[in-house]
Amino acid sequence: MSGSVRILKPGLLATVQDLGRKGAMAWGVPGSGAADQVSMRIANLLVGNEQEDATIEFTMGGFEVEFLDDVLFAISGVSGDASLDKVPIATTRAVYASAGSALAMGPLRSGARQYLALSGGIDVPVVLGSRSTYLKGGLGGYEGRALKRGDVLRTFPGRPENKLGSLKEGFHLPSLEKDARGISVLRVTEGTMSGRFQSDAIDRMLSAVYEVLPESDRMGIRLAGEKVLHKEGADILSGGIEPGAVQVPGSGNPIILMVDRQTTGGYTKAFSVISADRSKLGQLRPGDKVRFSMVGLEEAHGAFLGLEESIKDSVRFDDAGPRRFSVKVDGRTYAVEVEEVL
Amino acid sequence: MGYDLITNASDDSVLIRFDERIDPKIASKVRSAVLSVRKAALPWVTEIIPSYNELLIILDPRQIGPTEALGIITEVVKGGKDSEGLKPRLLMIPVCYGGELGPDMDNVCSFTNLTEEEVVRLHSAPEYLIYMIGFTIGFPYLGGMDPRLETPRLEKPRSMVPRGSVGIGGKQTGIYSLDTPGGWQIIGRSPVELVDIRKMPPSLLSAGDHVKFVPIDKERYEQISRAVSSGSFNLGSLTGEERR
């Protein structure tokens, strides 16, 4: 059965996102997709979806939705103060909601993004191979725009089996990891333009702690801290921007480019955040502390493969917990809990 | 092949870099590398992004590691010849110059000391090379503008430039593919839609193509506009091909 959900409060920014567009960057089309794809994929796994199914990306919490049908859902990303019909619920696990119930999320105290996956995945049209919203281009997602109060989103029919996903014991979302001092550590590999910077500039970046600025968005994380000095200016001939690129414009303040980045740019780049650590970018909020750590290419690739394995093995399914249905009898609606007995 | 550098740009991309200059000879090398990589049809290549003097290739790290990818792409590019498969398309883009569709024509005339007729003649004479598509969906970076047309950008950029607008910004000229903010001097507008997101690729123009602007009057502009909005405009007529 397919479900539907109505947005009551979108929070700071809510958009439909999947894993993004591929194959059209040569024509200026950005990848887009979830800013924290690890959390987004796990939200899907928890409700028995395919990892690439479309979800709703919420920013900084403070959202509220109403389920218009009985639906299995999960929230992944930062845990927050979530409640279903005012009863507190756990996040990062699948939950049944009956038609008419409301899910509310308090403001986030740390991190930046949460993903709401609904069984079956969000049903919006595919544009250039993806359901992701690209706001600046006004395409994809729900009418190419951010979600507003009153929008109703439908899902594809979900899987019929009654299985509730939750995180395996000891598994923590890697995109939320920080070091002992509370700093997000981003591993990077060597860039292709080191010669454009002053001789010790890259080393100084690697030993500095940067702070995330409020101007950060899905295009890029803007940083303040140790200024990066160029040899002869920051401008280059425009060229393709590699994934994870840390760009340094003339101001000397680095920008870590993200999912909605332009496909080409004309500023020097210091190095690139490794693929395994890019989902962490989606959880950085203004004021967060960040540092860079240089690794080799093969180590970076190993970290990616390790992350992929751990995602596959992150969720366990409990058979048939109590399941809530709403039942109409003589025009009145009753909430009924059904549990399998042995 | 004559590249300056071939290297991993991240754990999931490979970069080929040529001499850093805007030059049709360099563009031809970039294009030849694009064609070699495309022809190899490597299943793990997800993006091939050409620019003035670089080619960035993005990979799917699920399928291949950085060292192996660099080795294979190096071989693929080595095999390609500079002139191989170079049959660039020439697109004839109709433009209505001046008037309300080209509100900055007077600025350009007074800065360049040319008459409107001269500006139109000089601007519509060359076959411009598209070095790359970037900035936004379908936006072409063109090379080959007559230096006599160089005019500085507007001091105050417009918050919205209608798509199809043709402008001059310093040494560059181009055509806005989408409604976006912009600071170029707008001298005319084309009724042709450069972007159709229902198609793959979504852009009429590609890097390596050539563009020639064909002056049309207001009446012809309106005629083509109507055909474009009713869906009866034949894009094949721009390349001389009959495509349906």
Which keywords apply here?
heterodimer, A: 342 residues, Cyclophilin, 2 domains, six-stranded antiparallel sheet, elongated, B: 244 residues, alpha+beta, Gyrase A, domain 2, seven-stranded mixed sheet, 25% helix, 28% strand
Write the layout of secondary structure elements.
The complex is a heterodimer of chains A (342) and B (244).
Chain A (H helix, E strand, L loop, with lengths): L3 E6 L4 E4 L19 H10 L8 E5 L4 E4 L3 E7 L4 E3 L2 E3 L5 E3 L4 E4 L7 E6 L33 E3 L8 E5 L16 E7 L10 H7 L2 E3 L7 E5 L10 E6 L4 E4 L6 E3 L6 E10 L15 E6 L2 H16 L2 E5 L3 E7 L2 E7 L4
Parallel strand pairs in A: 13-20
Antiparallel strand pairs in A: 1-4, 1-11, 2-3, 3-10, 4-9, 5-8, 5-10, 6-7, 6-9, 12-21, 13-19, 14-15, 14-20, 15-18, 16-19, 17-18, 17-19, 22-23
Chain B lengths: L4 E6 L2 E5 L6 H17 L4 E6 L3 E6 L6 H14 L10 E8 L7 H8 L3 H9 L3 E6 L6 E4 L14 E4 L3 E5 L2 E4 L4 E3 L2 E5 L20 E6 L2 H13 L14
Parallel strand pairs in B: 5-13
Antiparallel strand pairs in B: 1-2, 2-4, 3-4, 5-12, 6-7, 6-13, 8-11, 9-10, 9-12
Helix pairs in contact in B: 1-2
Description:
The complex is a heterodimer of chains A (342) and B (244). Chain A is mostly beta strands and 342 residues long. In chain A, 10% of the residues lie in helices and 34% in strands. In chain A, strands 13-19-17-18-15-14-20 form a seven-stranded mixed barrel. The longest helix of chain A has 16 residues, at 297-312. The model of chain B has no long low-confidence stretch (mean pLDDT 93). Chain B has 244 residues and is an alpha+beta fold. Chain B has two domains: 5-79, Gyrase A, domain 2 (2-Layer Sandwich), CATH 3.30.1360.40; 90-238, Cyclophilin-like (Cyclophilin). In chain B, the strands form three sheets. A seven-stranded mixed β-sheet of chain B has the order 7-6-13-5-12-9-10. A four-stranded antiparallel β-sheet of chain B has the order 1-2-4-3, covered by helices on one side. Chain B contains five helices and 13 strands. The chains are: A mainly beta (342), B alpha+beta (244). At the A-B interface, strand 16, strand 19 and helix 3 of A face strand 1, strand 2, strand 3 and strand 4 of B.
